[in-house]
Amino acid sequence: MLALRILDLKDFTGKLFIGEMFQHFSFVEASFTTFVTYTLDGQLHKEFFDSEQKPMRTYCLWEDVQAQCFSIIKGKRTPLNFKIVFRLSSSNVEKLLSQSGIALKPEDIYGLYLNCQFDGKQLLCTTGTSLKIFTLDKQLDRVWDEMVRKFFRKNQVAFEDA
Q: d(Cα 88, Cα 113) in Å, to the nearest integer?
């Protein structure tokens, strides 16, 4: 698990709520506390869709809820706190496995997660992995952590280890 402290909060939240940086991540859940607490679940309800429109994925994408989340927090006052949980898309998990040579199959992995948590003063981003099988090998954790670091550098996010 990796924990990164975001150094430029304004820049990062702009990329998070307005920019395209996270749009292709799966959105798992979020909570925002302003004058009340809003909780959002990103799991898709497939029965809502017509049979020909049913999505193949389990969670919506961040781009599907990004504007609604921004509308919750925008204004003159900073939210008291928020937490957003992202999950790497299945296609990107497959790419990560093939590029890294890790001896796991995509179906062995439940999810590779990125949690963004703001406590009113600082914003921490932490990584996590969830497997469907038991293994003592931590190579996937290390590769996922390094991928997040590279992703942040590529998107010019200022961070330090927390």
A: 6
Q: Measured on CA atoms in the order 46, 48, 51, 57, is the torsion positive or negative?
A: negative
Backbone φ and ψ for 76, nearest 5 degrees, come out as -80, -25
HSE of 128 in the Cβ direction (CA atoms, 13 Å)?
A: 12
Please report the sign of the dihedral spanned by the C-alpha atoms of residue 16, residue 128, residue 149, residue 117: positive
Q: Which two tokens stand for residue 130?
A: 């969830």
Residue range 130-144, pLDDT digits in tens: 999 998 889 999 999
Whole-model pTM?
Answer: 0.94
Is 116 within 8 Å of 83 (Cβ atoms)? yes
DSSP tag of 114? E
